[in-house]
Amino acid sequence: MTSQQNLRHGSCLCGKIQFDIREDSIIDVVNCYCRMCSKASGSFSIIWGCIDNNSIYYSNVSHLSTFFSSRNVKRSFCNYCGSNVLWQSIFTKNITWFAVKLLDTELKQAPRNIFKFDC
């Protein structure tokens, strides 16, 4: 597999935030049903991909706004269209969870379901 085939491109709804990930660097993919993720997405659940910070590449981050949704989690979203883009825990600063459905193509890795308490 060439490195170009391994790259997956994604963007928020309006396209102002663009990002690329290396699919072979994804640590985990989860379908989260916790209350915080449900509130953040406005849906029953959201699919997050876990990746090392060095394997996700952003462009136009001026439209990325961040806030703490709890003591331990900061979430980032597009300040133009409101798309949830990512979240990070204060305990794992080298890891980013990105919204999988923002990718233009499907991942090979299927999400596993998790039911957990809010972070």
Automatic annotation (TrEMBL):
Q: Does the keyword Lyase apply?
A: yes
Keyword tags? Lyase, Metal-binding, Zinc
Q: Name one Pfam family in it.
A: GFA
Q: Which GO terms describe its molecular function?
A: carbon-sulfur lyase activity; metal ion binding
> Per its UniProt entry, which superkingdom is the organism in?
Bacteria
CENP-V/GFA domain boundaries: 8-118
User: What's the family?
Assistant: Belongs to the Gfa family.
Q: What is this protein called?
A: CENP-V/GFA domain-containing protein
